[in-house]
């Protein structure tokens, strides 16, 4: 069974999705939660069998799919993949649970789509075949499109349409790149190892770099490809926003690590610095915009652009601190941003307001929310002994090794982050009661459970980051060796 | 024993935090206070044991676990306990304990009692981590941690927006310094390949002076933030928004001493970089005078004390900068005693006055609060530098070293000391002498504080009076115990400094310097006495016209307003500019432009699809011809 664990992890949520789609009424969410918990249990099982020392993919499942085109259903997990699979399998049940108090129209459809999306996400993180990767990449987009378009807020159709077209636009370039590379492979195959064998000249790699980078940069998003993001995050239902920000954007970062850097190292030599600079611009730019956002959901959306920019910059710095920092920060950011959006949802649920000037004085009415919100927020501003610090420290260190001034500019994030986050916290939680928050009640039941789980992870991984760093260590070292070797 | 038990020193307050934090609604007040105080007392007792162990057996390293390990970057969670650390431990836990005890009385009627003690314990925990860490990153944990706790405690009464803002300001301003510290750590790592003290300091002399200067200046940026030096000091005076015992904790035992500790810890790096030493001394001296001038005209009793802290910290940096490491550290210690005493005393006054902090409403409190009065007198004499009170010895040591470097620095330093004596006695006389100026209701309410508050005052008063005797200079036929104890930490630096310049001061010169400064201070006190006791001058009301320097001082040289105009508001405007113009109009405009272009072109291309076979055939023929022509030509 353990040898099939990867393919099970990919397909099991799909099964769940089909079943949940036929369940009418309130039971849908419970069944969906059940499926996501079994999925989590499987991931934990895989963890117990995971070989930390092995840098290559493990639990590989490989079946011919469309043989005439050399397409295989090939999935497997190395340390990098596995960390992201863990993130996905941990967050999906939390995201489902976080929506328990809310009444949705057609709940079965919503929860079926969430599980369907999980298949796409796990597929992206485990695909070892470029075609399969592309299929999973698009498969993840379809459910989130519907989730946002059906259950979203104001202006959802226009915003979601734009998001869809924008990301499709990027993906098509990637498709061109994938097909081009496929033609260049010696054995005409989509297998990732064949892609790694392709040796192209610098000129070709340079334009191919943009084919892939555009798709990934839009997904993350990197400045200036980000303008779909704040609108989409704001108008999507919070479950959707959590899926987008907590997990989906990691597809872009993962894509860079798995498909861009090792396949196109000469393109990277040509454009890596540009990508790094764009990433750092995004860090500062988005932070500054976040200063004066009144809508707290939009504020967190912008903060996410800043955080992702730092991760991306760390990757393009091409050293082990950057890669490992990116890995752990992807996990931490996923956990923290889901927590932050959940808090926004809790507040909105009670007050029907997200504007900070309508809120205020919540801390004295809801001490549990105040405390848990603060802990998550401290993770987001990278206070030492929270999960956010480890990643941010490593990432800034990696950028420092790349160039001192880059690190100083990117380092502004630790000041700016504190400014906009504490400003938001102060406006919402402290001070006088806002007009909307007069009858605020503290969190209960499932809300508490989700918040406690998130806080526990924020603190635990702040104290013991090695649990996560160990998982990806061998694979990251291996990846860097491949890239450096091919760059020479 | 140190190896087995030292980890408990920070863990005990952490346990206290967890108990009071998790159970803050359920725990009865008695238990909360007991847990809060007992954990810190436990740490204090352990610190005493550790002190004697280190004294006998030298420094110890304790490895707990591997925290972060990536490539060659290894950050162990480990402690280094040497002489410097052991003294810091005693100050933090000792003074911290007294503040905890005092708080049981002061905060007794506050609804957030449990939360308060949880934060207080957390504060102590982070400060202990800061001094215990065996590398710069663990120090950084504590460094940022105390920043967090100050945020929580300054904003403790967060229902008032201005208090919450003061808390935010403290955190953000600290973070500005922290960025410098962080970059400094990165540079240390890339220079020395390690972030541990034990690896860095022995190699210090292998690095170039330019690199060391950059590193030390970056670290100093961190110290400026945490220890409230120019230009990053403005958070500290605002920090008095928190409960008064918190001010005592921040100003005396924890937080602000972190910057001094960091430089003292890195002494060898600083000694090897004369430019950094000069910068530290210069900033320190400038801050000492600047803050003292502001303190002259403040009417809020806590504000006077706050600015006096900024000023005294300036002296400590001056000491570090002129190579008086022991002296600076000595002043950390004595200052911890008398500043804790003064703040707690002020708290006692405020408590009696029913929350009033304006000294113009006080006066004549001597007979109502005899214990507070007497202990405050001891503290005021100590900070003013009257022999044989503790502040005299430590300040004298710094100034004597300053004289060795330059008599001008000494003269300016003494000038600041005169200002200190004046504003401190101004505060003291306005509070305790003359007639009561408050309301009838306040007058009726006046009472001495309970024993839980006065006993810590008495203990601190004793320390403020006698604490200086651990560092009596040779010139006064004393043996400098502190110097002796700390010599393993500063020994190498002292040697390098001695080799570089100047011999020792002669005893005669030292007597003359002491005499001059003491005489000046006495005159200063006498002047304050004349103005505020004999003539019973009461500072003018808020709205009264002020002129020139007095106006500038009263308004704290408008530094907050300047920062607001130069940083805060432009950044907010930039934020709106980025959001509305760049993001919404330009970048998104381009994106939408692409979309519209597609729609427009689709619209045009659609017209080609007419559905008439003839048209299609025509297009096909044109196409074939074009291909043929293309092939023919190329």
From TrEMBL, chain A:
Transmembrane segments annotated in the record for this chain: 6-23, 30-48, 79-97, 109-125, 131-151, 163-183, 207-227, 239-261, 273-292, 299-320, 326-348, 368-390, 402-422, 443-463
GO cellular component: endomembrane system; membrane
Entry superkingdom: Bacteria
Keyword vocabulary terms for this entry: Membrane, Transmembrane, Transmembrane helix
Membrane topology: Multi-pass membrane protein
InterPro entries assigned: NADH_Q_OxRdtase_chainM/4, NADH_UbQ_OxRdtase, ND/Mrp_TM
Pfam families: Proton_antipo_M
Residues covered by the NADH:quinone oxidoreductase/Mrp antiporter transmembrane domain: 128-413
GO molecular function: NADH dehydrogenase (ubiquinone) activity; NADH dehydrogenase activity; ubiquinone binding
Primary location recorded for the protein, binned into one broad class: membrane
Location within or outside the cell: Endomembrane system; Membrane
Matching PANTHER family: NADH-UBIQUINONE OXIDOREDUCTASE CHAIN 4
Family the entry assigns: Belongs to the complex I subunit 4 family.
Protein name: NADH-quinone oxidoreductase subunit M
Lineage of origin: Bacteria, Pseudomonadati, Bacteroidota, Sphingobacteriia, Sphingobacteriales
Automatic annotation (TrEMBL), chain B:
One BP annotation, GO: ATP synthesis coupled electron transport
A GO MF label: quinone binding
Localization (cell): Endomembrane system; Membrane
Gene3D superfamilies cross-referenced by the UniProt entry: 1.20.5.2700
Membrane topology qualifier: Multi-pass membrane protein
Domain NADH:quinone oxidoreductase/Mrp antiporter transmembrane: 135-420
The reaction(s) this protein catalyses: a plastoquinone + NADPH + (n+1) H(+)(in) = a plastoquinol + NADP(+) + n H(+)(out); a plastoquinone + NADH + (n+1) H(+)(in) = a plastoquinol + NAD(+) + n H(+)(out)
Sequence ranges assigned to domain NADH:ubiquinone/plastoquinone oxidoreductase chloroplast chain 5 C-terminal in this UniProt record: 440-578
KW Transmembrane helix (keyword) present: yes
Family indicated by similarity: Belongs to the complex I subunit 5 family.
Protein name: NADH-quinone oxidoreductase subunit L
Organism: Solitalea longa
């Amino acid at each position: 069974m353990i040898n099939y664990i990867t393919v099970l992890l990919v397909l099991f949520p799909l099964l769940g999705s089909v079943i949940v789609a036929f369940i009418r009424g309130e039971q849908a969410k419970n069944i969906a939660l059940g499926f996501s918990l079994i999925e989590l249990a499987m991931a934990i099982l895989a963890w117990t069998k995971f070989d930390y020392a092995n840098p290559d993919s493990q639990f590989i499942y490989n079946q011919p799919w469309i043989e005439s085109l050399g397409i295989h259903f090939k999935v497997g997990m190395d340390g990098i993949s596995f960390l992201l699979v863990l993130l996905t399998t941990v967050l999906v049940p939390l995201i489902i649970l976080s929506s328990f108090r809310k009444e949705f129209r057609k709940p079965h459809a919503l929860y079926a789509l969430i599980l369907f999306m999980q298949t796409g996400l796990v597929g992206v993180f485990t695909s070892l075949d470029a075609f399969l990767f592309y299929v999973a990449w698009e498969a993840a987009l379809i459910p989130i499109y519907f989730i946002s378009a059906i259950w979203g807020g104001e202006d959802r159709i226009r915003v979601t349409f734009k998001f869809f077209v924008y990301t499709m636009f990027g993906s098509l370039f990637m498709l061109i790149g994938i097909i081009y590379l496929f033609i260049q492979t010696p054995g005409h195959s989509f297998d990732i190892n064949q892609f790694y064998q392709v040796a192209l000249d610098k000129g070709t790699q340079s334009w191919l770099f943009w084919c892939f980078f555009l798709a990934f940069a839009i997904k993350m998003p990197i400045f200036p490809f980000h303008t779909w993001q704040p609108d989409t995050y704001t108008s999507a239902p919070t479950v959707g926003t959590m899926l987008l920000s907590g997990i989906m954007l990691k597809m872009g970062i993962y894509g860079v690590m798995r498909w861009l850097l090792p396949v196109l190292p000469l393109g990277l030599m040509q454009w890596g610095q540009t990508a790094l600079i764009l990433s750092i611009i995004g860090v500062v730019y988005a932070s500054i915009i976040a200063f004066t956002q009144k809508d707290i959901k939009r504020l967190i959306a912008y903060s996410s652009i800043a955080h992702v920019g730092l991760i991306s910059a760390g990757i393009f710095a091409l050293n082990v601190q950057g890669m490992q920092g990116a890995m752990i920060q992807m996990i931490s950011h996923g956990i923290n941003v889901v927590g932050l959006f959940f808090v926004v949802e809790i507040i909105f649920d009670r007050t029907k307001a997200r504007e900070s000037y309508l809120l205020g004085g919540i801390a004295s009415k809801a001490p549990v929310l105040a405390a848990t919100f603060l802990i998550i927020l401290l993770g987001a501003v990278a206070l030492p002994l929270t999960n956010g610090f480890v990643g941010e420290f490593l990432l800034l260190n990696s950028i420092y090794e790349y160039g001192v001034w880059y690190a100083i500019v990117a380092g502004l994030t630790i000041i700016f982050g504190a400014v906009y986050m504490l400003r938001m916290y102060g406006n919402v939680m402290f001070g006088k009661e806002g007009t909307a928050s007069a009858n605020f009640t503290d969190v209960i039941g499932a809300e508490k459970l989700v918040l406690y789980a998130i806080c526990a992870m924020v603190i635990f991984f702040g104290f013991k980051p090695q649990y996560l760093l160990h998982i990806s260590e061998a694979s990251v070292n291996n990846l860097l060796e491949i890239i450096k070797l091919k760059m020479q | 024993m140190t190896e087995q038990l030292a980890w408990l020193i920070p863990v005990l307050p952490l346990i206290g935090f967890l108990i009071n934090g998790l159970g803050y609604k359920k725990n009865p007040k008695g238990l909360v206070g007991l847990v809060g105080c007992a954990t810190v007392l436990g740490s204090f007792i352990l610190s005493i044991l550790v002190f004697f162990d280190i004294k006998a057996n030298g420094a110890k390293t304790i490895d707990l676990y591997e925290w972060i390990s990536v490539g060659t970057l290894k950050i162990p969670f480990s402690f280094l306990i040497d002489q410097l650390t052991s003294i810091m431990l005693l100050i933090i836990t000792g003074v911290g304990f007294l503040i905890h005890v005092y708080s049981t009385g002061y905060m007794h009627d506050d609804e957030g009692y449990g939360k308060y003690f949880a934060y207080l314990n957390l504060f102590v925990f982070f400060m202990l981590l800061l001094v215990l860490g065996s590398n710069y990153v663990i120090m950084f944990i504590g460094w940022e941690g105390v920043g967090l706790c100050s945020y929580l405690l300054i904003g403790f009464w967060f229902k008032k927006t201005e208090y919450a803002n003061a808390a935010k300001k403290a955190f953000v301003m600290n973070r500005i310094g922290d960025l410098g510290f962080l970059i400094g750590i990165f540079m240390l790592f890339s220079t020395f390949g390690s972030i541990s003290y034990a690896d860095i300091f022995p190699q210090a002399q292998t690095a170039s002076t330019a690199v060391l200067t950059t590193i030390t200046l970056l670290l100093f940026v961190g110290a400026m933030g945490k220890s409230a030096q120019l230009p990053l000091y403005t958070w500290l005076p605002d920090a008095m928004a928190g409960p008064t015992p918190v001010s005592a904790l921040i100003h005396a035992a924890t937080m602000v001493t972190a910057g001094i500790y960091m430089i003292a810890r890195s002494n060898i790096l600083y000694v090897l970089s004369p430019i950094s030493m000069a910068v530290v001394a210069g900033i320190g001296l400038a801050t000492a005078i600047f803050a003292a001038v502001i303190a002259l005209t403040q009417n809020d009793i806590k504000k006077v004390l706050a600015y006096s802290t900024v000023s005294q910290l300036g002296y400590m940096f001056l000491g570090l900068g002129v190579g008086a490491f022991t002296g600076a550290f000595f002043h950390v210690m004595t200052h911890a005693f008398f500043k804790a005493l003064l703040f707690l005393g002020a708290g006692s006054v405020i408590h009696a006055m029913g929350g009033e902090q304006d000294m113009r409403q006080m006066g004549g409190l001597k007979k109502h609060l005899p214990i507070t009065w007497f202990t405050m007198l001891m503290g005021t004499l100590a900070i003013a530098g009257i022999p044989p009170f503790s502040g005299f010895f430590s300040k004298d040591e710094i100034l004597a070293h300053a004289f060795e470097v330059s008599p001008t620095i000494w003269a300016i330093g003494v000038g600041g000391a005169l200002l200190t004596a004046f504003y401190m006695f101004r505060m003291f006389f306005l509070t305790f002498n003359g007639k009561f100026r408050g309301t009838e209701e306040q007058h009726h309410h006046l009472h001495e504080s309970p024993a839980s508050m006065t006993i810590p005052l008495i203990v601190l008063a004793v320390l403020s009076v006698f604490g200086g005797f651990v560092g009596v200079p040779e010139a006064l036929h004393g043996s400098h115990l502190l110097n002796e104890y700390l010599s393993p930490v500063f020994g190498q630096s002292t040697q390098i400094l001695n080799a570089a310049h100047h011999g020792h001061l002669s005893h005669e010169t030292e007597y003359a310097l002491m005499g001059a400064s003491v005489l000046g201070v006495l005159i200063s006190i006498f002047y304050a006495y004349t103005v505020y006791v004999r003539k019973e001058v009461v500072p003018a009301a808020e709205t009264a016209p002020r002129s020139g320097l007095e106006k500038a001082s009263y308004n704290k040289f408008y530094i907050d307003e300047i920062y607001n105009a130069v940083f805060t508001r432009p950044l907010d405007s930039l934020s709106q500019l980025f959001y509305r113009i760049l993001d919404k109009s330009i970048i998104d405009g381009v994106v939408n432009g692409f979309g519209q272009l597609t729609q427009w072109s689709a619209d045009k291309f659609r017209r080609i699809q007419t559905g008439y076979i003839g048209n299609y055939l025509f297009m096909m023929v044109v196409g074939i011809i074009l291909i043929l022509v293309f092939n023919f030509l190329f």
